C-alpha cells in the first residue's frame, strides 16, 4: 500500500504577495531598461549625424563646397536634397547611381517654367506635368538608416496621393540648418547656392549644420531624397519653394501659411523656437502636431542632437533656445555662450 502525503500548496495570500513583489520589481526595472534603451538610441542617433558630418566634409573635399540644401533649378537634379547629394559618401553609391541613371532618361520632353527638360527630372514622377508616366524616382522610397533616428516611433515610409498618383517616400529625422529662416538664407544649407568653408566666417565650430526634427502623425514634410518644402508666393517664382520644414529648417523658422494644407496653414506664422513637441496651438486653439514641423526637436528627453560645421555632434538642451539664432548663422559675427 502506498502512503499518501498531502503537500501544502500556496495560499491565496502568499500568491498575492508573490504577484505584488513581481509587480514592484517590474516597476523598478522597466524604467531603468527604458532609460538604457533611450541612451543607446541617442548614441546611435548622434553617430548617424557624425557620419553625415564626415560625408559632408568628404563631399566638400571633392566639390570644393557643401551641397546646396536643394536645387530649385529645373534640371536633372530638380529638388534633390543635400542628403541625396551625399549618398555616394555614405556608402550608398548603388542607390545614387540608380537615381542618377533614372533621372538621365530623355525619352519624354517637357517644359517647366519656360525651361525645356524631361519628365524624368521630377523625383515624384510625371504627374506634375499631367502625364501618366514615368512614376517616382526609385530612390524616393528607399529607407536610409543613417537618416533615421531609432528613438522615432513613426513608420520609416509614408504614402501620399498627388495628382492621381500614389507616392511612397522615405522619411528623415535630420534637417539641414538654413539659418534663421527660409527667407534669409543665412545658414549653411539653403536653396540653389552651395556654401564653402571660406563662407562660414563665424567658424565651423560655431555654426550649426544639421539638427534633429522628428516625425509626427500625418506629417506631409520631411523626406530625405527630395523636397520642395513650403511655398511662399511673395518670393521669386523660380525660388519660392526653398525646402523649409522638408529638408532644411531655420532656428526661427516661419510658416508661410501658403502650403495648401489647411491643418498646417492653421499653425502660427512664427517665428518658431527650439522647444519640446506637442506644445503649439493652432488658430483653433488645439495642440496641433503638424505645427512641430516648423522647429527643431526630438524624442530624446530634454533636447536634441545637432551637427556643427566642423563635423562634431553635440546634444543641446531646450534651454539653449536663446542662442540658437546666432548659432545657426554662418556670417553673423554674433558673440554667444552655450548654457
List the helices and strands and how they pair.
Blueprint: H1 12-63, H2 82-85, H3 93-103, E1 109-112, E2 115-118, E3 157-162, E4 165-170, E5 174-179, E6 208-212, E7 248-250, H4 262-265, E8 303-308, E9 313-317, H5 324-328
Parallel strand pairs: 5-7
Antiparallel strand pairs: 1-2, 3-4, 5-6, 6-8, 8-9
Describe, in plain words, how this protein is organized in 3D:
The protein is 22% helix and 13% strand. The protein is built from five helices and nine strands, in the order H-H-H-E-E-E-E-E-E-E-H-E-E-H. The protein has helices spanning 12-63, 82-85, 93-103, 262-265, 324-328, and strands spanning 109-112, 115-118, 157-162, 165-170, 174-179, 208-212, 248-250, 303-308, 313-317. Strand 8 and strand 9 (313-317) form a beta hairpin. The protein is globular, with a radius of gyration of 24 Å.
Number of helices in the DSSP assignment = 5
Broad structural category: alpha+beta
Ends distance: 84 Å
Poorly predicted regions: none
Q: Percentage of helical residues?
A: 10-25%
Task: Return the average pLDDT rounded to an integer.
Answer: 92
Brief account:
This protein is of the alpha+beta class.
Features:
339 residues, alpha+beta, five-stranded mixed beta sheet, two-stranded antiparallel ribbon, 22% helix
